[in-house]
Amino acid sequence: RRVLFRSFMFFNVLKIKDLVDLDEKKFDRVPLMESEHGSLNAIAIKKDEIKKIAVEGTKLVKKYTSDFEGEIFLEYSPESFTGTEVEYALEVCDAVADAWEASKENKIIINLPSTVQMDTPNVFADQIEYMCKNFKNRERVIVSVHPHNDRGTGVADAELALLAGADRIEGTLFGNGERTGNVDILTVAYNMFSHGVNPILN
User: Fold this and answer.
1) pLDDT tens per residue, range 16-67
2) Measured by CB atoms within 10 angstroms of the end CB, which terminus of the chain is less buried, N or C?
């Protein structure tokens, strides 16, 4: 049995015990806004406290899934990644990977979203490239991107992110999603096929 646990902020620890009894993959989404100018800052949560939330949440996931007999895959996402100082986003993601004890054999998914598309695709790609080049241990990380489409450039975000070093794209069929939607995963797949690349669409 394999479980993918997605953590975005305050881990829903009370549901984790139910999670380990499931045979199917479980997806749980809770956001962590880690930008100094993000919404958490409005309630006086500072950088060191935000990192502590992420690390402690990761430790709780490890604790409450320790008896699970199958594999647990952790996906961590800093929700306001594009509005966060990239050096600090890296610091938090590395701290989460350390807390998870991620390794080449026990990878962690770090999912980097272009929430509300604050940046143009080239800037998003620069951020992805920075993360890929500066992770403490790149081999233990599956770099995932989660492009939205607020600027209408979700496909460009996804394709440039792949060129910048991302391993994985999260999207939706036909781009259906909140606001103006997420990246249309089918368009990305067709574009890759047109260049002779198998998108390994799952």
Assistant:
1) 444 444 444 443 343 444 444 444 444 557 888 889 999 999 999 899 888 8
2) C
195: which 2 tokens? 């260049």
The position carrying tokens 């993360």 is 131
Alpha-carbon Rg of the chain, whole angstroms? 17
The C-alpha atoms of residue 59 and residue 189 are separated, in whole angstroms, by 36
* Residue 139 to residue 64: CA distance in whole angstroms: 26
Q: Which helix (H) or strand (E) holds 21?
A: none
Please tell me what DSSP assigns to residue 90.
H
How many other CB atoms sit within 10 Å of the CB of residue 18? 10
The order of strands in the sheet holding 141-147 is: 2-7, 71-76, 108-114, 141-147, 168-169
Q: Are 7 and 77 in contact (CB under 8 A)?
A: yes
Cβ atoms 158, 145 nearer than 8 A: yes
User: Which residues are CB-contacts of 181 (< 8 A; sequence separation ≥ 6)?
Assistant: 148, 149, 154, 172, 175
* pLDDT at 140 (0 to 100): 98
Q: Which residues of 65-93 are buried (b: 16+ CB within 10 A; e: fewer)?
A: beebeeebbbbbbbbbbbbbebebbbbbb
Token pair of 75, please? 């996906």
Which amino acid belongs to residue 24?
A: E
CB 19 within 8 A of CB 28: yes
